[in-house]
Task: inverse folding
């Protein structure tokens, strides 16, 4: 990113190839709308070009990128206030691991329940789990993105995990009832 | 380590970021506390499951990549055709950063200005007011030049040049009908979605004209890209074009129209009829 900030804007393509899928997953996890998420990915990379001079090479690029992503998401929500946004029903892919057919069916079922449980969490809890688990962000990076202390991040991750467990148990109960 | 501390350290334990001493203390507490051990196992299982979820999620379509590279090329072209270091930037580089120096330079320039002005002051009888007509003529020439630049750039082969042309449209008077018709032509006929989107944005300044308002409504049906259609619908809302209500109503129920455009038309209708 430092090179992009220095004027080599074509190097943004490297960052795009590396990060656009992760960004897309973040947006889809937050709004469940594929088309809107694709627009937001474009918006984030366009903002990176516009604000490239503000990037500090001492700072984590991922944290900076997700700060931009959160702002883009908030701006987009404000623009769409009052509109009804469609929720896409995604066709789920099988996980990358390749266990036997029976084990795979159980695993797929468990993951589907987990996915539903994650979707039921309030946005702030879902966001912290998506950032820490899907994006592999460290707690100090998360503190930078969320604008709080590292200790607060840990407490919020713990609470989000407890809420996820509660939602997972509720959904499992609904499915077996 | 007690139960509270164990709960506090659980996220770091799960992400394997505790140091050796903390991990030992954590494990030793688990060995003696059934409740914490059970909670760590339950949450640990969900934590491992979360890592597998991205593999079950949809991938972005190829459209994302195409749009990114198109925007990047247009941006790069725009940068290359812009002057590297204009007079303004050179002047700005000379300006000191320290406020004390800024004040000193400002004061020195004031003194110099007064001195030079005193030296070159004309005799009283020679003082003449600049003719109003000359100023008006100069303004007219500048305005013509901006119009010429906007119009000629909008006819270029390269999408980047046409984008620059559209950005020049912001600098002309909102009553300039030639630039308005060039913008409307671009919105309806330009091959690049990005240029069409930029032209829709630029139409905001011309929103007072009834020609603009009618043309926006007519243009929605001519568009092939849902993105541009949505931008046009948003523009109708921004400009409060209530006359567009019948057309928006038709769009919102037309099955041949993209679903997101239909939804946006429906939402726009609600806003316009409030």
Result:
């Amino acid at each position: 990113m430092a090179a992009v900030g220095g004027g080599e804007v074509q190097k943004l393509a490297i960052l795009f190839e590396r990060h656009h899928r992760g960004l897309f997953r973040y947006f889809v996890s937050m709004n469940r709308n594929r088309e809107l998420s694709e627009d937001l990915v474009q918006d984030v990379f366009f903002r990176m070009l516009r604000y490239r001079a503000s990037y500090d090479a001492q700072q984590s690029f991922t944290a900076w990128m997700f700060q931009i992503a959160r702002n883009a998401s908030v701006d987009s929500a404000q623009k769409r206030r009052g509109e009804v946004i469609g929720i896409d029903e995604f066709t789920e892919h099988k996980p990358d691991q390749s266990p036997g057919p029976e084990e795979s069916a159980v695993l797929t079922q468990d993951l589907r329940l987990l996915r539903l449980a994650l979707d039921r969490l309030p946005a702030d809890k879902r966001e912290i789990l998506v950032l820490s688990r899907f994006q592999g962000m460290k707690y100090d990076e998360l503190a930078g993105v969320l604008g709080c202390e590292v200790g607060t991040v840990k407490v919020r991750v713990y609470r989000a995990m407890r809420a996820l467990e509660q939602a997972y148990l509720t959904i499992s109960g609904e499915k077996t009832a | 380590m007690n139960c509270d501390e164990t709960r506090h350290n659980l996220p770091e334990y799960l992400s394997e970021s505790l140091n050796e001493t903390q991990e030992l203390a954590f494990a030793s507490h688990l060995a003696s506390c059934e409740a914490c051990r059970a909670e760590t196992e339950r949450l640990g299982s969900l934590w491992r499951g979360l890592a597998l979820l991205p593999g079950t999620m949809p991938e972005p379509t190829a459209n994302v990549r195409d749009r990114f590279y198109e925007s990047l090329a247009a941006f790069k072209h725009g940068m290359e055709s812009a002057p590297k270091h204009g007079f303004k930037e050179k002047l700005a580089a000379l300006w000191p950063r320290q406020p004390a120096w800024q004040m000193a330079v400002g004061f020195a320039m004031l003194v110099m200005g007064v001195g030079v002005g005193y030296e070159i002051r004309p005799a009283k009888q020679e003082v003449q007011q600049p003719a109003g007509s000359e100023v008006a003529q100069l303004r007219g020439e500048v305005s013509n030049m901006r119009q010429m630049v906007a119009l000629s750039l909008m006819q270029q082969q390269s999408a980047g040049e046409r984008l620059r042309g559209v950005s020049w449209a912001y600098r002309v008077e909102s009553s300039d009908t030639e630039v308005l018709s060039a913008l409307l032509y671009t919105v309806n006929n330009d091959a690049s979605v990005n240029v069409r989107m930029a032209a829709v944005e630029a139409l905001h300044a011309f929103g007072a004209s009834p020609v603009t308002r009618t043309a926006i409504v007519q243009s929605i049906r001519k568009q092939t890209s849902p993105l541009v259609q949505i931008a046009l619908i948003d523009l109708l809302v921004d400009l409060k074009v209530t006359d567009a209500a019948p057309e928006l109503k038709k769009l919102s129920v037309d099955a041949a129209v993209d679903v997101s455009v239909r939804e946006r038309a429906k939402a726009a209708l609600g806003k316009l009829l409030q």
User: Anything to note?
Assistant: Chain A touches chain B through 57 residues (CB under 8 Å). The CA atoms of residues 12 and 103 of chain A lie 41 Å apart. The domain at 2-79 of chain A is CATH 1.10.1740.10 (Rna Polymerase Sigma Factor; Chain: A). The helical segments of chain A are 2-5, 12-31, 34-50, 61-79, 101-120, 123-134, 139-146, 150-176.
